[in-house]
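Reminder: ligand-aware prediction takes two inputs, not one.
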Amino acid sequence: MSHEPVVAIVGVTGAVGAEFIATMDKRNFHVGKLKALASARSAGRSIDFRGQKVLIEELTPHSFHGVDIALFSAGSGISKKYAPIAVKSGAVVVDNSSAFRMDPDVPLVIPEINANRIRDHKGIIANPNCSAITALVPLAPIHRQNRIRRVILSTYQAASGAGAAAMEELVESTRAHLDGRPFTPKVIPLPYAFNVFSHNTAIDPETGYNDEETKVINESRKILEDDDIAIGVTCVRVPVLRAHCEAITFECEKPITEDEVRAILSKAPGVRIVDDRAKNYFPMPIDASGQDDVLVGRIRRDLSDSSGHSISMFVSADQLLKGAALNAVQIAELLPQRAMA
Ligand code: A2P
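Here is what comes back for the chain with adenosine-2'-5'-diphosphate:
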């Protein structure tokens, strides 16, 4: 490819779609032409990209003619239907949905961890689940030095993971609650304002795990290339607009100290340590929102493991950026065709 790439964004009007645009702009991602794709509902409107108005077009099977890179974030049904069409048309797809993540032919990539897998792609590269990304950016460099054999993690997930409409619903239901008005939810079928609830994905009646938890377990194993790592997860939605948090405890094969963890994380790409015990200041969604790093703090020995193999910590990362758009754009930056452009 000798020209600047033609880039399509599928789901351009969504919460992640907007961050694709902002992230490409911020990182000076080369774009010859932008194709802004969404549903028929949005067709005819326009978005701003680098000072230009770009017309939003309805996604159709013909949308990918001449497209080099297609960033998808319109849900897994749309990805399943249209990503293979985009690949057939000659595009490389970076897909933010769960549609292809566990397909053995599809690399599942967090560039800080396994950028080398990008070269294996056959047209589609999958962006991992946001909770998996948030946990693995700090866990992978530790795992590399002292294998993690077991992880227990609990998430505190923001509305952004359920899309722009869920974010709006959190704001509107909070306003209604404060005004003492009744509110009928349309997106999240549970009271969201001033409430906390188990993640709103389907529960497997046999295991009791919801889809989000299963994704974290399976995707973590695939990304770390370690099928034996034991992972227990509880995924919970909290009334925060964007940026997820996670309480993580992990047990390593060899003894490990909190100073060793700090030393590893202080050099880890994509990690920023926020761990001020004197001021009781640790990772918070409000600080993680709008920035690229996974914030890590509360790094301490897990007192329930007297053998000294276990550490607990608390992390926060912007679900829309490192958990979605930023990770996808980082993948697109590493595509060989771009290096030739
Ligand atoms: P639209 O705004 O036209 O409905 P979010 O994840 O924030 O909910 O955003 C979902 C994105 O997926 C939006 O950009 C939405 O576009 C897009 N989308 C939903 N359904 C379709 C569809 N059938 N074809 C194309 N894009 C769709």
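Residues 130-145 form the longest helix (16 residues). Residues 6-127+324-340 form a domain with the Rossmann fold fold (CATH 3.40.50.720). We will return to this case in the review session.
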